[in-house]
């Protein structure tokens, strides 16, 4: 039996310490009681599990998995599961905390959670991935459930992985439990509109922000880092709106064309070749070059900490829309603010996914399913309302969109904690 060796990490700083630092600063700005900030600085519960899996060649690998609940004061915890070779417990804790703020900002009756397994899903066969998922689900089965903690897809996981989680949980309890996981395939109780929901929420945020600035969507040039669920769907939605998508990238590198890429061709090229590089009518660029490219809106939609104090001074975009969670370090944030670059923070800009996950959970509990136009209209209502609340808080406190968004969210969780009272 062998355990996978840890690969090099993309994280330059400890994300959980960054998230705790953000919370402390928000507490000061919004004068939140220090006792409450101390409570919210820590995660309520976390498990680390061993996930032994028989590989196709007969050997056994022992993977490590995590599930962390940051907070469930406002309702069951909600958050994705990440399969990535460099995922760490502190990354999962930070992502769980950000989920608490995101759900509160959107006004959803959820707390925050996150999960992860240290593995490279690209190197696993479908059978290995299924066995890993079923064993991981079994190891965390006492933690999850429709009233406790509801997982969803994140980096490296998709609707098929959610289907295996749903099936494993349901087989264990003896009946189908639609509300145990979201991001499921439509054939087993998924919601229409869930796959593109995160990107659609980002689109609504970009459009509303441009309107505030007296600009129009179709005059805008956008660069997108990451071409998975969030990045590729956002590229397609923007292209449908007539936006020039001038650069896109994945983990292997990127492609650019200042006059606009053929987005459907990029999607087809990636599906055929497994990479974007080589797309006809484009030049190759690195992921580092993409961040600094001449564009109007930069949308990091891959991993954390890609916008740092090193590259923030050279960013040419006038707006950043955080499709990914935690792509901007606090040091970069300060530089961007000084340079008057508008940052639409992750808890607002990528919340479309959890909003439609909430819709999926509601539909699953009621066993009554909505039409796509209803899903998109309700998504628009929630995201635009949260945007407007964040924008006016930003103006009232003369602060950044991030501090405003976190401030609103933390105050809501703090208020719920106070009203419920400290147990026992
Ligand atoms: P995904 O696995 O579908 O796609 C990730 C993309 O990032 C892939 O194209 C991959 O090639 C690329 N990538 C990986 N490492 C990279 C690197 N070092 N440089 C550049 N690109 C790299 O994941 P996703 O679901 O699209 O999630 C992307 C981000 O969005 C994550 O931060 C995730 O937490 C966040 N997010 C996702 C959802 C969702 O509904 N899927 C919701 C909210 C937030």
Mean pLDDT: 96
Enumerate the distinct ligands: nicotinamide-adenine-dinucleotide
Shape: globular
Percent of residues in beta strands: 15-25%
CATH homologous superfamily title of one domain: NAD(P)-binding Rossmann-like Domain
CATH architecture of one domain: 3-Layer(aba) Sandwich
Largest sheet: 7 strands, mixed
Per CATH, what is the topology of one domain?
A: Rossmann fold
| Total number of helices | 14
What's the gyration radius in Å? 20 Å
Q: What is the end-to-end distance?
A: 45 Å
> How many DSSP E strands?
13
What would you say this structure looks like, in words?
44% of the residues lie in helices and 17% in strands. It has helices at residues 15-29, 34-40, 89-106, 126-139, 159-173, 197-212, 229-240, 263-273, 287-291, 330-338, 346-349, 352-366, 372-397, 401-420; strands at residues 2-3, 45-54, 60-71, 77-84, 111-118, 149-153, 221-225, 244-250, 253-256, 283-285, 297-300, 319-321, 342-344. It has a 7-stranded mixed sheet with strand order 10-9-8-7-11-12-13, sandwiched between helices. A hairpin with a 5-residue loop joins β2 (45-54) and β3. The longest helix has 26 residues, at 372-397. The protein is globular and about 55 Å long. Bound molecules: nicotinamide-adenine-dinucleotide. Nicotinamide-adenine-dinucleotide binds next to α7 and β8. Nicotinamide-adenine-dinucleotide binds at residues 10, 153-156, 198, 225-231, 249-251, 287, 301-303, 323-325, 350, 353.
């Amino acid at each position: 039996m062998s355990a996978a060796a840890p690969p090099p990490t993309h994280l330059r700083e400890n994300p959980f310490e960054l998230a705790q630092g953000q919370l402390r600063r928000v507490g000061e700005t919004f004068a939140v009681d220090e006792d409450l900030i101390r409570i919210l600085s820590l995660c309520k519960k976390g498990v680390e599990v061993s996930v032994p899996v028989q590989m196709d060649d007969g050997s056994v690998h022992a993977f490590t998995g995590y599930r962390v609940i940051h907070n469930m004061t406002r309702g069951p915890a909600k958050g994705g599961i990440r399969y990535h070779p460099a995922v760490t417990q502190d990354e999962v804790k930070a992502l769980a905390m950000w989920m608490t703020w995101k759900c509160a900002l959107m006004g959803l009756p959820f707390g925050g959670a996150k999960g992860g397994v240290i593995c490279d899903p690209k190197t696993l066969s479908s059978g290995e991935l299924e066995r890993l998922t079923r064993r991981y689900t079994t190891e965390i089965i006492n933690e999850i459930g429709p009233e406790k903690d509801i997982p969803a897809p994140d980096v490296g996981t998709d609707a098929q992985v959610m289907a295996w989680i749903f099936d494993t949980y349901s087989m264990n309890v003896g009946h189908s439990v639609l509300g145990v996981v979201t991001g499921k395939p439509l054939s087993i109780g998924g919601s229409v509109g869930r796959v593109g929901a995160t990107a659609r929420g980002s689109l609504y945020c970009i459009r509303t922000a441009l309107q505030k600035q007296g600009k129009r969507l179709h005059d805008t040039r956008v660069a997108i880092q990451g071409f998975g669920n969030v990045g590729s769907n956002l590229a397609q939605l923007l292209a449908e709106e007539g936006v020039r998508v001038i650069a896109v990238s994945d983990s292997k590198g990127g492609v650019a064309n200042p006059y606009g890429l053929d987005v459907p061709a990029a999607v087809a090229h990636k599906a055929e070749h497994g990479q974007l590089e080589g797309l006809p009518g484009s030049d190759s660029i690195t992921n580092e070059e993409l961040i600094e490219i001449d564009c109007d809106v930069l949308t990091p939609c891959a991993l954390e900490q890609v916008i740092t104090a090193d590259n923030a001074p050279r960013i040419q975009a006038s707006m950043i829309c955080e499709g990914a969670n935690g792509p901007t370090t606090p040091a970069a944030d300060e530089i961007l603010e000084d340079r008057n670059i508008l940052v639409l923070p992750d808890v607002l800009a990528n919340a479309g996914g959890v909003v439609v996950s909430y819709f999926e959970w509601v539909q699953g509990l009621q066993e009554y399913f909505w039409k796509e136009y209803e899903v998109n209209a309700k998504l628009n209502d929630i995201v635009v309302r949260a945007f407007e609340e964040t924008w006016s808080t930003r103006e009232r406190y003369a602060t950044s969109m991030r501090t405003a968004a976190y401030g609103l969210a933390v105050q809501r969780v703090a208020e719920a904690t106070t009203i419920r009272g400290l147990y026992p």
